[in-house]
């Protein structure tokens, strides 16, 4: 079921909101089990590995799919950069309030979930240019595989994660609603379920059996820092791309495209993403997640659902967007138009000589309108001025004789 909206250039679909609702629930659940339950339950450890492989890649793919409109810098500063700063600060203060010693490293957001907002900010401001490159998806995957061998790509400004997850964003950006229609009409689409299940079983089983840390799927470090050789790291990162794209295709193929009781959550994921991690840090710091009753997967599934429903509700969304709008109003002035001095085209032209540009710029600065003209125009202007001057002199001469 689809309908056109004025806000998006793509057809609105309940399918997208249902995918986002599922993914944000998996984000919360994956974070809550990571604090304590994965340490005591080997089955949950498998689930934790399996979710970590694909949940953020799929989220970033959907973000790319919803970023097709021309991007406005100030809008992205408001919706992404400011929440990044506030979200990081809130997470940091939660740790400080609990008595933990944590450095405030705004440019190195490891230990928080805010890296996603920083990555999305970078993606949206570069995608219109990068999205035009031929074969950008395979090229970006090759670049990401290479980046895993280089220490320059690290947690600083989340450069490693931005590079590693960019293929999913650009793939989503290039994905068309026609592709979704074709996939959903494909009669053999249900074969994707057993394929996805086999991959989600096999890859975590291999990694846990060989004591390979889940860090390789987070894309935060080089292969060597994750305890892997470059060749081994490249193979596992390729597996992440394979598993994630299969799961993404599965979601678009089989999830319902109709309004469900929880579809509204898919429209309000930002508030959930922003608030849930500080809440979980606080709950863990107050030992709530160490209560025996909480060391149970069903209990944590219920807690995750409650968190998603509360933080995804309209009142919380209004609070989040209202506070953001107020802060933006306080921080930024209304847009002002900068006067065009008429030199942009000349500076952008390959045929325009530097000396000519320099002369015209000096003329503008000296407030000499004639020198700022083209040579032909300037010569005509000088001739007219000379004629007017002679006429004026002759008139004055006649007046003196009279």
Keywords for this structure?
67% helix, single chain, 402 residues, disordered N terminus, mainly alpha, two-stranded antiparallel sheet, globular, 17 helices, 2 strands
Mean pLDDT: 88
What is the 3D shape?
globular
Report the β-strand fraction as a percent range. under 5%
For the report, how would you describe the main beta sheet? Answer: 2 strands, antiparallel
Radius of gyration: 29 Å
Total DSSP E strands? 2
Structural class: mainly alpha
Please trace the helix and strand order, writing H or E for each element: EEHHHHHHHHHHHHHHHHH
- Order of strands, main sheet, comes to 1-2
Which spans of ≥5 residues are poorly predicted at pLDDT below 50? Answer: 1-8
Number of helices: 17
Give the terminus-to-terminus CA distance. Answer: 93 Å
Helix content range of the residues, please?
A: 55-70%
What is this structure's SSE topology?
Elements: E1 2-3, E2 12-13, H1 14-35, H2 37-40, H3 42-65, H4 73-97, H5 115-130, H6 136-147, H7 159-174, H8 177-185, H9 192-209, H10 215-218, H11 230-254, H12 269-285, H13 297-311, H14 314-331, H15 344-348, H16 354-365, H17 375-401
Antiparallel strand pairs: 1-2
Structural commentary:
This protein has 402 residues and is mainly alpha-helical. Helices cover 67% and strands 1% of the residues. The chain contains 17 helices and 2 strands. The chain has helices spanning 14-35, 37-40, 42-65, 73-97, 115-130, 136-147, 159-174, 177-185, 192-209, 215-218, 230-254, 269-285, 297-311, 314-331, 344-348, 354-365, 375-401, and strands spanning 2-3, 12-13. Helix 3 crosses helix 9, helix 4 (73-97) packs antiparallel against helix 5 (115-130) and helix 9 runs antiparallel to helix 11. The model is unreliable at 1-8 (pLDDT under 50).
